[in-house]
Amino acid sequence: MVTPDANILLYAYNVGDERHSDAKKWLEDSLSSDEIFALNWQAVMAFLRIASHPRSFPQPYSLPQITSIVQEWLDCENVITIAPTPRHWTILQEQIREGQTTGPLMMDAHLAALAIEHDATLATTDRDFSRFIGIKTINPLI
Fold first, then answer.
1. DSSP for 96-136, written as a single string
2. From first to last of its 142 residues, what are the pLDDT tens digits of the chain?
3. Which residue(s) pair with 2 in the sheet?
4. Which of 113, 121, 124, 120 is nearest to 85 (CA)?
5. Roughly what angle, to the nearest 10 degrees, separates helices 88-98 and 105-117?
6. Neighbours of 22 (CB within 10 A)
7. CA distance 121 to 112
8. Of the candidates 46, 60, 61, the residue with the CA atom closest to the CA atom of residue 9
């Protein structure tokens, strides 16, 4: 099972980004494969926030466009959503402590904990996740 970081989702829909083609192909392949694709709400919300904001995204998506994109993901047969379980706080505390996490990296610690508790591999281009213990990551754009 794989779960994406927001950066992968954003690259897949930012046609002006040099990583767009690779990210779009990986996402399309992932959404049509037999492997479970675990959307996490943190990445979905970041995608919605950034891809619809004119100061954050070169060609922002309209509300109907952006909600349609997410609905298309959710409609795929292999897609599930994952959320924190009762173990989340214990795992998150360990990630914060071991990764010496502060500030903006707290959201990364949360995503790392979420992936760990669901035994998911995190698809990301962000090397900051290497600071966390017990997380499996892949960079699908390499």
1. HHHTT--TTHHHHHHHHHHHHHTTPEEE-S-GGGGGSSS-E
2. 999 999 999 999 999 999 999 999 999 999 999 999 999 999 999 999 999 999 888 889 999 999 999 999 999 999 999 999 999 999 999 999 999 999 989 999 999 999 999 999 999 999 999 999 999 999 999 9
3. 37, 121
4. 113
5. 130
6. 16
7. 9
8. 46
Q: How far apart are alpha carbons 126 and 54 in whole angstroms?
A: 23
Give the number of other Cβ atoms within 10 Å of residue 92's Cβ.
21
Residue 103, both tokens: 């500030």
pLDDT score for 56 = 86
Report pLDDT for 100. Answer: 94
- Mention the CATH class of domain 2-138: alpha beta
Between helix 6-13 and helix 41-51 the angle, nearest 10°, is 40
How much is the pTM? 0.94
Coil vs helix vs strand at 77? coil
